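quick one, two chains, predict together pls
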Amino acid sequence: MRFYEVELASRLMLGTAQYPSPAILASAVRASGAGVVTVSLRRESSGSLAGQRFWSIIRDLGARVLPNTAGCHTVKEAVTTAHMARDVFGTAWIKLEVIGEADTLQPDVFGLVEAARILTDEGFQVFPYTTEDLVVADRLLAAGCQVLMPWGAPIGSGRGLNNIFGLKALRAHFPDVPLVIDAGIGLPSHAAAAMELGFDAVLLNTAVAKAGDPLAMAQAFAQAIEAGRLARLSGPMEPREMASPSTPVVGRALLA
Amino acid sequence: MTIILNGEERAIEARLLSLALIELGYQDVVVATAVNGCFVPASMRSSTVLSDGDRIEVLAPMQGG
């Protein structure tokens, strides 16, 4: 799998927020095998310097870092946050979030396209957090995005894939664009389903961080994503409306 | 001079952003800066002159999804 010419072995991308402790965060990332972790920028207090300690833990993991613009509601906020992220993290990658609605954290797709155009023109490699809308996807690609990250369900909801029809259509319309399901995944079965639909990767956070045993759940997700990918490549059978015996009918004994 | 650091009023002596950061306790740290809502790259801090009432944001890597 390639994002912007970067080859990645794992199709699991993991968020770094909400873990019970930094040690559990590090163990969960290692157990997941994730090659990409998402991070953010927040105010640093010179008294605690909490961000410096966090950054040290992340650097030790050796995973590629994907900074986000989480919490940004305007194009200006998102673009400025991206500039600051590039300065700190030293990467052109940016997970672009422009939030349009507070209850669902649904992307403001109009602002998203505008911010994506500005940032790609400035040399950023944008990973837009978007919906499954085909027209928006087309505009994001025209703006220069080479990866799309449609939501499965609202961030942190754990509801899985809310619109399978829409996600299938997105996959079918853009067969050659790397597509990542980002947000809403609650269970490994959701992640496997995303991979079975042909998505290239899954980005999740809360489902692992808030599990009773984050380390075990990280492993469960890694296995589910591999299983879903293998299933996709194996050519799944077509569903039927009626039963069809799997055991041969020919040769059945007459015992009635 | 009084500036607003991450939303809180602070009195500082330094006039340059690079020196203000040291005075405010951010020496040898990985941070990104903005003044009055505009990004200031690390390379521009030593030539960025502060004024009374400026809003300075100092951001660092943090957990994110």
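The interface with chain A takes residues 6-7, 24-26, 29-34, 37-39, 41-42, 57-65 of chain B (CB under 8 Å).
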